[in-house]
Design goal:
This protein is of the alpha+beta class and 214 residues long. The chain contains 7 helices and 4 strands, in the order H-H-E-H-H-E-H-E-H-E-H. Helix 2 crosses helix 5. It comes from Methylobacterium symbioticum.
C-alpha cells in the first residue's frame, strides 16, 4: 500500500506563485517575539528539504547570547566598511545608504552551517561534487524562508560577514562551515519588489530565468 500523493489545483498554484513573489529579503523587523511553536514549524519544514545522499547536513544554530550577537554585528561592520571602500563616486554613496541587515532589530538570529564531516549519507553523490553538501543546506534555507513567509514571518540573509570569525564566536565544531546567517521576525513593512530594486541598486532581469539549449 502506498500513500496517495496530494493533488494541487490551479488555485493552489496561484498562491504558491504569490508565495515565491512575496518571499523578499527583509531588513526591517518589528520587535515582537516570534512564538516558539511558529519557529519550530518553519524549522520542521526546512528539514523536509532534499539533500545529497540523504545526508541532511544542515545545522541551524539559534543565536541568542547578546555577546555573540554583538560579535556578529561587529563582523558585519568591518565587512561592510571594506565593501563600501570597493565602490567609487555615486555607487559608493548609494551603497552606504542601503540597509543591508536587520541584526539589531530582528528578534531571532539563525546561523545555518553545513556539517562537512557528517557520516550521514555515506558519501553518496558527492565524490565528484563535494560542494553538494553546501548546496543541500542552501535548499534547506530556501525551504525555511518559504515556510516562514507563508506564516507571516520575514527573513533576511546577511552575507556581509566573516565566516571564520562567526564560527569562532559561536564556538562550533571545526568541520561546520557557515552557509547563511538569517535574521527572522515580523516585517515592519511589506513590498512586492526587492529592496535593492526599490532603492535603485539593481533592476530585475526582465527575461526572468535564463534558459539555454545546446
Amino acid at each position: 500500500m502506498t500513500d496517495e500523493p496530494p493533488r494541487f489545483d490551479d488555485a493552489f498554484r496561484e498562491r504558491l506563485h504569490a508565495l515565491f513573489a512575496w518571499r523578499r529579503d527583509v531588513r526591517r523587523f518589528r520587535s515582537d517575539p516570534v512564538p516558539e511553536a511558529l519557529l519550530g514549524q518553519c524549522l520542521a519544514e526546512a528539514a523536509l528539504s532534499p539533500s545529497v545522499g540523504n545526508s541532511q547536513p544542515w545545522r541551524f544554530v539559534r543565536v541568542r547570547d547578546p555577546g555573540r550577537r554583538a560579535a556578529v554585528a561587529e563582523s558585519f561592520a568591518r565587512c561592510n566598511a571594506a565593501a563600501a571602500a570597493g565602490y567609487e563616486a555615486e555607487r559608493a554613496a548609494l551603497y552606504r545608504r542601503l540597509k543591508l541587515e536587520g541584526l539589531r532589530e530582528a528578534p531571532e538570529h539563525l546561523a545555518v552551517f553545513c556539517d562537512e564531516a557528517t557520516e550521514c549519507g555515506h558519501g553518496l553523490g558527492r565524490a565528484t561534487m563535494p560542494e553538494m553538501l553546501r548546496y543541500s543546506v542552501v535548499g534547506a534555507v530556501q525551504s525555511f524562508w518559504l515556510a516562514a513567509r507563508a506564516r507571516g514571518l520575514g527573513v533576511g540573509w546577511v552575507s556581509i560577514l566573516e565566516p571564520e570569525a562567526l564560527a569562532a564566536a559561536l564556538d562550533l565544531p571545526e568541520a561546520w562551515r557557515l552557509v547563511a546567517y538569517l535574521c527572522v521576525g515580523f516585517p515592519q513593512e511589506e513590498h512586492a519588489d526587492p529592496e535593492l530594486v526599490r532603492h535603485g541598486w539593481q533592476a530585475r532581469d526582465p527575461r526572468g530565468a535564463r534558459f539555454t539549449e545546446r
